[in-house]
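Q: What does the assembled structure look like for these inputs?
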Amino acid sequence: MWDADSFLDRAQELVKKAFDEHADYNAAQLDRSRPVKKGAVTRRRLSEQVAVKTHTMRTSFVGKVRDVRQIAEAQIGEGLADMVEFKALVNGHEATKKANGIQAWQGLSDWQLADRLDRDRSVLLLPGSLCGVGSTSQSLGVQDGGKSRHAERRESNVHSAGSSRNLTRTFTRCNWVEVASA
Amino acid sequence: MIFTNADPRYAGRLNDKQGSDTIVTMGKVREAIAFNAELADEST
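A:
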């Protein structure tokens, strides 16, 4: 199952490339926005390279971690140490397949779509404009009476669409984003 | 449909930092689906 050597080699190359590109990007940004003394720029470049936040690479490089394994006493440099290897899906790979899958939902009827989202527990990114960010027009506040009344009115609107089932009891996860859709 | 936030790090509004459920009509759900498909496309 594991093609460890080739996978690791490729992963290391890609990680190195990502780090280099990130460092170049930071350097270019600094050169453009902060025309300061040469020595200061050099020091900042070094600190930027050292301070790469690896957890943010998850959003720009690693799409999904597929597997992990621990290797006891692996040879690292001149010493022995435990090592953890991750098998990851690089961002962008298979994205077209995912996009096509999401797009295929458009062909479903409302009920089929609701069932599908509920069954798969799908996670959708909702633009701020759909979530009513910045306004309370679509909010459902549990503790705020005014919002709750508003939400109840919205529920009745949903029911009046001719449904025989209570769609509003169908819970599906989603992310809210603060920014409006670009 | 009622949508609940999947990740509290991304939930919240100016007047509701914790976020809460939000009701989205099926029309808006379809808009969200198109939006997500577009996002997935752009990542290729």
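The longest strand of chain A covers residues 62-76.
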